[in-house]
Task: structure prediction
Amino acid sequence: MRHIAAYLLLQIGGNASPSASDVKKVLSAVGIEADEDRLETLVSELEGKDINALIAEGSAKLSSVPSGGAVAAAAPSAGGAAPAAAVEEEKKEEKKEEKEESDDDMGFGLFD
Result:
């Protein structure tokens, strides 16, 4: 990750095609040693490629990966009033739970 981050920093700074020595300079400026093998692999893989196109391609691939949050986010959009009622019910339940928890303590601890 550090090699990629340094490579991207150099590109943002105006160096369209950073070399391995450029990346080493950036990393050494913050006290990090570069791994020669990984750095050479990175530079050779990215040589001649548009980094913005690679990022866009990677984002498109990641968007097709299912994640747990996508289903939950899509469900509330199905109905307009139902989520508001559910939120109100949750708030009422939370208030009841807080009250119950404070009554259970009664000043005694488990290890007293």
